[in-house]
Every structure is written in C-alpha cells, then in structure tokens.
C-alpha cells in the first residue's frame, strides 16, 4: 500500500501541472464572450478581430482575477446610468481603483494583442 503512495503523488502532480491554472481560467465563458462581442463591435467584425479580441480577454484574465474584473465592469456600467447616485460609481476610491486596474490590464492586452 505504501509503495503506491509515491506513484499516486506523482500522478497528482502531473495531472495538476497539465491542467491550466484555476486563477488564469476563472472567467466564465459568458463573460469572455461578452467581452469579445463588445470588442468586435468596436473594432470590426472580422476573423482577425475575433483573434485579437479573444487574445485581449485572455491577457486581461491572466492579469486581473475575475472578481476584480467583475467589480470594475460593474462600476463602469453603473457610471453610465443617469442620476445623482452615479457619481459614487465614477468618483469613489473603490471605483477609481477598480477602473485603474482594468485600464492597466486592457493597456497590456492592447500591447500584446493589437
């Protein structure tokens, strides 16, 4: 029984190293698809843009954990609404920090993919 333990540990290590990191792939498919769709709407609906926009969200996902991306997108979306309360979504420290994180990740994605 004990002689199988090193084999099991080795197998677990090999399987874990063969699978992509959970942190690098924690974005839901729908979030990636939404990003690619919006990116293609803004940049042209060609196969080249599909590749570039897909690359872009992959780079962003490698830099920014999904919860941070989701926070930034929520602030951005809410800041576009009308009313007095929207200033909170544009000017608060958390909104500025989340927006800055997303802008830096998008800038890196632009350098790599576009």
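-> sequence recovered:
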């Amino acid at each position: 029984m004990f002689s199988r333990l090193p084999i099991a540990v080795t197998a677990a290590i090999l399987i874990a190293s063969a699978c992509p990191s959970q942190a690098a792939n924690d974005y839901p498919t729908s979030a990636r698809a939404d990003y690619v769709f919006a990116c293609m709407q803004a940049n042209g609906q060609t196969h080249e843009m599909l590749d570039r926009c897909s690359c872009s969200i992959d780079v962003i996902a490698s830099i920014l954990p999904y919860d941070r991306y989701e926070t930034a997108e929520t602030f951005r979306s809410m800041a576009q609404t009308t009313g007095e309360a929207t200033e909170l979504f544009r000017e608060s420290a958390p909104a500025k920090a989340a927006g800055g994180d997303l802008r830096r990740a998008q800038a890196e994605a632009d350098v790599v993919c576009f």
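The chain is about 75% helix and 0% strand.
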